[in-house]
Amino acid sequence: MDAQGRAPFVISGEGGTAPVVLICEHASAYIPPELDGLGLSGEAQKSHIAWDIGALDMAKRLSARMGAPLISGQISRLVYDCNRPFEASDSIPEQSEVYAVPGNRGLSAADRKARFDSIHTPFHNAVSAVIDRQSALTGGQVAVITLHSFTPIYHGNKRALELGFLYHESGDLAQAATAIEAERGLMKAAVNAPYSASDGVTYSLHKHADMRGLHSVMVEVRNDLIDTYPKAQSMADHLAQTLAAAMAQVTQRGAA
């Protein structure tokens, strides 16, 4: 909790009874006042380097549509990225794309550990607790779904991709969801794009799903498709159908 009393996470949709847990690590651009904006301009503090634009509105709608609890971050990933382990160089980035992050430079080991302890640890303890509770409630295997957005232009290159379904070790859900998107023919989707596990982006999937033998998928949505509330709602409705169908396919295969 920062000096203003803001917790590093919030749980919503706790009454949901689906065998699903949603995670939105990069839901907020909030930087605690005592960090003085990490030395960034106001524009940079609100840009995609600080959070996943549109992801929270999409995640909340998806939580309601699927009847699933949602754990969302309340601190900017520039302060500590909850989708990275402590040892990752970009868990507290000194540079993010074209932006230098002055407030993250020259931190002592103790300073870095303090951010890890105050942000990462309670966030992931909450995720573990929600998965435990949902597993006990449903009496079955819970699927873990993380929700993210990516910028339409990266290092000057335009991205045609609209949806990415990523995995760390178990690709059943990602592959099923991508195949369903292809069948529906509505959006450009791919497996392990625009990133993959080799880019270090599937930490939460590995920590909470692969380590427990649970099905999981990381959903990446191009942020110009969800950068307004109505667009985020529409995308959530689209994904609710795709993910439900993908989970049904994976469950049927497992029962066969």
Please tag this protein with its features.
single chain; 256 residues; alpha/beta; seven-stranded mixed beta sheet; two-stranded antiparallel sheet; 6 helices; 17% strand
Structure description:
The protein is α/β, with parallel strands linked by helices. The chain is 36% helix and 17% strand. It contains six helices and eleven strands. It has helices spanning 42-45, 55-66, 109-138, 172-184, 203-208, 229-255; strands at residues 9-12, 20-24, 70-73, 95-96, 99-100, 143-150, 153-154, 157-158, 163-166, 189-191, 216-222. The strands form three sheets. It has a seven-stranded mixed β-sheet with strand order 1-3-2-6-11-9-10, with helices on both faces. A two-stranded antiparallel sheet has the order 4-5. A two-stranded antiparallel sheet has the order 7-8. A hairpin with a 2-residue loop joins β4 and β5 (99-100). The chain starts with 8 loop residues before the first strand and ends with a helix.
Strand content: 15-25%
Pattern of helices and strands: EEHHEEEHEEEEHEHEH
How would you write the strand order of the largest sheet? 1-3-2-6-11-9-10
Give the CA-based shape: globular
The major pleated sheet works out as: 7 strands, mixed
What does the radius of gyration come to?
18 Å
Which class best fits the helix and strand makeup? alpha/beta
Number of strands: 11
Alpha-carbon distance between the two ends: 47 Å
Total number of helices: 6
**Helical content band:** 25-40%
- What is the averaged pLDDT score? 95
Stretches where pLDDT is under 50 for at least 5 consecutive residues are none
